[in-house]
Automatic annotation (TrEMBL):
Annotated function: Catalyzes the formation of 4-diphosphocytidyl-2-C-methyl-D-erythritol from CTP and 2-C-methyl-D-erythritol 4-phosphate (MEP).
Organism lineage string: Bacteria, Bacillati, Actinomycetota, Actinomycetes, Propionibacteriales
Protein name: 2-C-methyl-D-erythritol 4-phosphate cytidylyltransferase
GO biological process, one term: isopentenyl diphosphate biosynthetic process, methylerythritol 4-phosphate pathway
Enzyme category, top tier: transferase
Catalyzed reactions per annotation: 2-C-methyl-D-erythritol 4-phosphate + CTP + H(+) = 4-CDP-2-C-methyl-D-erythritol + diphosphate
Similarity comment: Belongs to the IspD/TarI cytidylyltransferase family. IspD subfamily.
Protein species of origin: Tessaracoccus bendigoensis DSM 12906
EC number(s) per entry: 2.7.7.60
InterPro entries hit by this protein: IspD (IPR001228), IspD/TarI (IPR034683), IspD/TarI_cytidylyltransf_bact (IPR050088), ISPD_synthase_CS (IPR018294), Nucleotide-diphossugar_trans (IPR029044)
Keywords: Isoprene biosynthesis, Nucleotidyltransferase, Transferase
Chain positions of site Positions MEP for the nucleophilic attack: R149, K205
Name of the gene: ispD
Gene Ontology molecular function terms on file: 2-C-methyl-D-erythritol 4-phosphate cytidylyltransferase activity
Site residues (Transition state stabilizer), renumbered to this chain: R15, K22
Pathway the protein acts in: Isoprenoid biosynthesis; isopentenyl diphosphate biosynthesis via DXP pathway; isopentenyl diphosphate from 1-deoxy-D-xylulose 5-phosphate: step 2/6
Amino acid sequence: VPVVTVVVAAGSGSRLGARLPKALVELDSVALVRRAVDALLDGGVSEVVVTVPVGHEEAFREALAGTGSRLVHGGATRQESVRLGLAALAAPDDAVVLVHDAARALVPPEVVQRVTSAIVDGADVAVPVLPVVDSIRSVVGGGSEVVDRAMLRAVQTPQGARLGLLREAHEWLRRDGVEVTDDAAACEYRGHRVALVPGHRDAMKITEPVDLVFASALLAERKN
Ligand code: C5P
């Protein structure tokens, strides 16, 4: 079956403090969105739709030249951007679709393959996760209480499902006016079960300026 992807890149990147949309910020002279799309192509993806912010189409087209990606405008929220991206994919309902944050620009292709394999092997939804290293407290009322971190996982992207299933899940969220933070939660809303596969440190989300410093160090390490 074809493996296709929506790369969400329509965020403003205000927390990164750049004047450009975050996905266009460069790491070692290559835009984050380009690094993300290349990683997905290396991981076996055959059709790429990228959601982009209004007004930056030309810069995205340049950054993605030669990748065969199709650009569509994103929405007001990440969830809306995913829905619009899914609508633009031409693949059949049983295609495997991966939704990926452009901000996770250094995702290793083996993570892409792990998520894909989980869906091909029968999972409804699959997400890459990492153990949580910090001690965690939940704040309730005026106080707080410790949460057993052994039970917790941090969730990364790409998140995978069959295209028909994920489109349907997003349609239901829209109809019901429900907001979720990722695609696994979107599918769970419809009762689908989420499978976990090992994520990777390098699939970190580049959010704040210091994350770019860390990402540069990861790149330098790869070259050695
Ligand atoms: O803001 P945050 O880092 O959580 O966004 C996650 C991803 O979703 C980013 O890659 C961002 O570009 C994308 N996004 C989007 N449309 C929005 C908001 C965020 O495509 N309206």
